[in-house]
Amino acid sequence: MIRDMSGHRDSEAEGHLTLTFYVTKDGEEVDDDDLKSLGRSIMAACNDPKFHQKLEKRMNSEVEELKMQLARAQEALASAIKEKETAEKIMEKYYLRVTGKNGETPASHESSPSSA
């Protein structure tokens, strides 16, 4: 939020205009690391009054794209979990069939020595 602004022109022939903005972010002083991007944002808003509307529209579009990506990732995860569960069921049935109900390996499934 811009709380106040002051400005002055240099006394030199070029007459540079210096503006000072007094701003807060969420009611607190703005961090030094954020000042550069904040200054650019203020300049862009002065040069293009619809800057923030365009920025908001762009951000909303990005949020929608991220929501779609999240939905696709959730679907892929659900599919992978279902495939894993199916594979585990198949392995469990195969294991019970190979080892028999009492845990012993039937003679027909024991490994035979391979010929060289």
Q: What report would you give on this structure?
A:
- With 116 residues, this protein is of the alpha+beta class.
- The chain has a domain at 2-47.
- It is 56% helix and 16% strand.
- It has two helices and three strands; from the N terminus they run βββαα.
- The chain has helices at 32-47, 51-99; strands at 2-9, 17-25, 28-29.
- Strands 1-2-3 form a three-stranded antiparallel sheet, with no helix packed on it.
- Strand 1 (2-9) and strand 2 (17-25) form a beta hairpin.
- The radius of gyration is 34 Å and the shape is rod-shaped.
- It starts with a strand and ends in a 17-residue tail after the last helix.
- The mean pLDDT is 80.
Describe this structure in a few short sentences.
Helix content is 56%, strand content 16%. It has 116 residues and is of the alpha+beta class.
Summarize the helices and strands and which ones pair or pack.
Elements: E1 2-9, E2 17-25, E3 28-29, H1 32-47, H2 51-99
Antiparallel strand pairs: 1-2, 2-3
Name its key features.
three-stranded antiparallel β-sheet; 116 residues; single chain; alpha+beta; 3 strands; rod-shaped; 16% strand
**Lateral arrangement of strands in the main beta sheet:** 1-2-3
Overall shape: rod-shaped
Radius of gyration: 34 Å
**β-strand number:** 3
